[in-house]
Write a structure and sequence with these properties.
With 164 residues, the chain is an alpha/beta fold. The chain is 33% helix and 20% strand.
Protein backbone atom coordinates (compact mmCIF):
# COMPACT_ATOMS: atom_id res chain seq x y z
CA UNK A 1 0.00 0.00 0.00
CA UNK A 2 1.34 3.39 -0.93
CA UNK A 3 1.54 6.13 1.67
CA UNK A 4 -0.80 8.19 -0.54
CA UNK A 5 -3.51 5.54 0.00
CA UNK A 6 -3.61 6.20 3.74
CA UNK A 7 -5.69 8.95 5.28
CA UNK A 8 -5.81 10.54 8.70
CA UNK A 9 -8.50 9.73 11.23
CA UNK A 10 -11.22 12.41 11.24
CA UNK A 11 -10.73 14.55 14.35
CA UNK A 12 -14.26 13.90 15.61
CA UNK A 13 -13.74 10.10 15.54
CA UNK A 14 -12.07 8.12 18.29
CA UNK A 15 -9.53 5.53 17.15
CA UNK A 16 -12.13 2.78 17.75
CA UNK A 17 -14.76 4.64 15.70
CA UNK A 18 -12.33 5.23 12.86
CA UNK A 19 -11.35 1.57 12.83
CA UNK A 20 -14.99 0.43 12.83
CA UNK A 21 -16.32 2.83 10.18
CA UNK A 22 -15.32 0.73 7.15
CA UNK A 23 -17.34 -2.16 8.62
CA UNK A 24 -20.65 -0.33 8.13
CA UNK A 25 -19.71 0.61 4.57
CA UNK A 26 -18.85 -2.99 3.74
CA UNK A 27 -22.13 -4.20 5.27
CA UNK A 28 -24.18 -1.63 3.31
CA UNK A 29 -22.37 -2.52 0.07
CA UNK A 30 -22.84 -6.23 0.67
CA UNK A 31 -26.58 -5.92 1.21
CA UNK A 32 -27.37 -3.31 -1.46
CA UNK A 33 -25.07 -4.41 -4.24
CA UNK A 34 -24.04 -8.03 -3.67
CA UNK A 35 -27.36 -9.31 -2.28
CA UNK A 36 -30.05 -7.00 -3.70
CA UNK A 37 -28.26 -6.14 -6.98
CA UNK A 38 -29.39 -2.50 -6.81
CA UNK A 39 -29.73 -0.90 -10.23
CA UNK A 40 -29.85 2.76 -11.29
CA UNK A 41 -33.36 4.21 -11.24
CA UNK A 42 -34.69 1.79 -8.62
CA UNK A 43 -36.59 2.94 -5.54
CA UNK A 44 -34.92 2.07 -2.23
CA UNK A 45 -36.35 2.30 1.29
CA UNK A 46 -33.73 2.31 4.06
CA UNK A 47 -35.05 1.67 7.57
CA UNK A 48 -32.85 3.30 10.19
CA UNK A 49 -31.33 5.61 7.61
CA UNK A 50 -29.47 7.77 10.16
CA UNK A 51 -27.67 4.82 11.77
CA UNK A 52 -24.26 3.47 10.79
CA UNK A 53 -25.22 0.92 8.12
CA UNK A 54 -28.35 2.87 7.19
CA UNK A 55 -26.46 6.10 6.49
CA UNK A 56 -23.96 4.25 4.32
CA UNK A 57 -26.83 2.49 2.49
CA UNK A 58 -28.44 5.88 1.75
CA UNK A 59 -25.18 7.21 0.28
CA UNK A 60 -24.37 4.10 -1.74
CA UNK A 61 -27.91 3.89 -3.13
CA UNK A 62 -27.82 7.55 -4.14
CA UNK A 63 -24.43 7.23 -5.85
CA UNK A 64 -25.80 4.19 -7.71
CA UNK A 65 -28.60 6.37 -9.12
CA UNK A 66 -31.49 5.17 -6.94
CA UNK A 67 -34.40 7.20 -5.60
CA UNK A 68 -33.86 6.92 -1.84
CA UNK A 69 -36.46 6.97 0.93
CA UNK A 70 -35.25 6.67 4.51
CA UNK A 71 -36.91 6.26 7.89
CA UNK A 72 -35.58 8.06 10.96
CA UNK A 73 -36.81 10.36 13.70
CA UNK A 74 -37.62 13.90 12.54
CA UNK A 75 -34.45 15.28 14.15
CA UNK A 76 -32.36 13.31 11.63
CA UNK A 77 -34.20 14.35 8.46
CA UNK A 78 -31.88 17.26 7.56
CA UNK A 79 -28.88 14.96 7.93
CA UNK A 80 -30.53 12.32 5.71
CA UNK A 81 -31.24 14.89 2.99
CA UNK A 82 -27.61 16.10 3.21
CA UNK A 83 -26.30 12.58 2.56
CA UNK A 84 -28.66 11.87 -0.32
CA UNK A 85 -32.15 10.84 0.81
CA UNK A 86 -34.81 12.07 -1.60
CA UNK A 87 -37.64 11.46 0.86
CA UNK A 88 -37.61 11.10 4.64
CA UNK A 89 -40.20 9.39 6.82
CA UNK A 90 -40.59 10.09 10.54
CA UNK A 91 -41.28 6.59 11.86
CA UNK A 92 -42.59 8.06 15.11
CA UNK A 93 -45.47 9.94 13.50
CA UNK A 94 -46.33 8.04 10.30
CA UNK A 95 -46.43 4.42 9.18
CA UNK A 96 -43.94 4.01 6.35
CA UNK A 97 -46.50 1.90 4.45
CA UNK A 98 -48.65 5.03 4.08
CA UNK A 99 -45.84 6.82 2.21
CA UNK A 100 -43.58 4.25 0.54
CA UNK A 101 -45.05 2.52 -2.51
CA UNK A 102 -43.65 0.36 -5.33
CA UNK A 103 -40.27 -0.06 -3.67
CA UNK A 104 -37.64 -2.12 -5.49
CA UNK A 105 -35.31 -2.69 -2.52
CA UNK A 106 -35.92 -2.43 1.22
CA UNK A 107 -32.86 -2.36 3.48
CA UNK A 108 -34.01 -3.20 7.00
CA UNK A 109 -31.65 -2.34 9.85
CA UNK A 110 -34.46 -2.36 12.45
CA UNK A 111 -35.98 -5.86 12.34
CA UNK A 112 -39.02 -7.26 14.10
CA UNK A 113 -42.36 -5.85 13.01
CA UNK A 114 -40.61 -3.50 10.57
CA UNK A 115 -39.36 -6.48 8.59
CA UNK A 116 -42.82 -8.03 8.41
CA UNK A 117 -44.51 -4.75 7.45
CA UNK A 118 -41.91 -4.02 4.76
CA UNK A 119 -43.24 -6.70 2.42
CA UNK A 120 -46.34 -4.58 1.81
CA UNK A 121 -44.38 -1.74 0.15
CA UNK A 122 -42.47 -3.87 -2.36
CA UNK A 123 -43.38 -3.93 -6.02
CA UNK A 124 -43.61 -7.34 -7.71
CA UNK A 125 -40.05 -8.62 -7.95
CA UNK A 126 -38.83 -6.25 -5.22
CA UNK A 127 -36.13 -7.36 -2.79
CA UNK A 128 -36.15 -7.20 1.00
CA UNK A 129 -32.77 -7.35 2.72
CA UNK A 130 -32.55 -7.51 6.49
CA UNK A 131 -29.43 -6.98 8.53
CA UNK A 132 -31.01 -8.00 11.84
CA UNK A 133 -32.85 -10.95 13.27
CA UNK A 134 -33.07 -14.55 12.24
CA UNK A 135 -34.05 -15.40 8.70
CA UNK A 136 -37.04 -17.69 8.91
CA UNK A 137 -39.08 -19.55 6.32
CA UNK A 138 -42.05 -17.61 5.07
CA UNK A 139 -44.36 -20.29 6.47
CA UNK A 140 -43.21 -19.39 10.00
CA UNK A 141 -44.28 -15.78 9.43
CA UNK A 142 -47.77 -16.50 8.11
CA UNK A 143 -49.39 -15.68 11.41
CA UNK A 144 -47.56 -12.34 11.47
CA UNK A 145 -48.71 -10.87 8.17
CA UNK A 146 -51.43 -11.63 5.66
CA UNK A 147 -49.24 -10.00 2.98
CA UNK A 148 -46.54 -12.60 3.53
CA UNK A 149 -49.06 -15.39 3.05
CA UNK A 150 -49.35 -14.37 -0.60
CA UNK A 151 -45.60 -14.34 -1.22
CA UNK A 152 -44.00 -17.65 -2.26
CA UNK A 153 -40.59 -18.97 -1.34
CA UNK A 154 -38.18 -18.67 1.53
CA UNK A 155 -36.75 -15.51 3.07
CA UNK A 156 -33.05 -15.31 2.39
CA UNK A 157 -30.48 -12.54 2.69
CA UNK A 158 -32.16 -10.87 -0.28
CA UNK A 159 -35.78 -11.89 -0.53
CA UNK A 160 -37.27 -11.62 -4.03
CA UNK A 161 -40.94 -10.80 -3.72
CA UNK A 162 -43.67 -11.77 -6.16
CA UNK A 163 -47.37 -11.50 -5.51
CA UNK A 164 -48.33 -13.96 -8.27
Amino acid sequence: MAVTDITSRPARFSMAEAAAYPTVAIAAWRFLIAAADLQPGERVLVHGGAGGVGSMAVQIAKVRGAHVLATASAGNHDYLREIGADETIDYRSIRFEDVAKDIDVVVDTVGGETTVRSAAVLRDGGRLVTLVGTVRPRSALRAESSVLQRLPGIFNEAWPMSRH
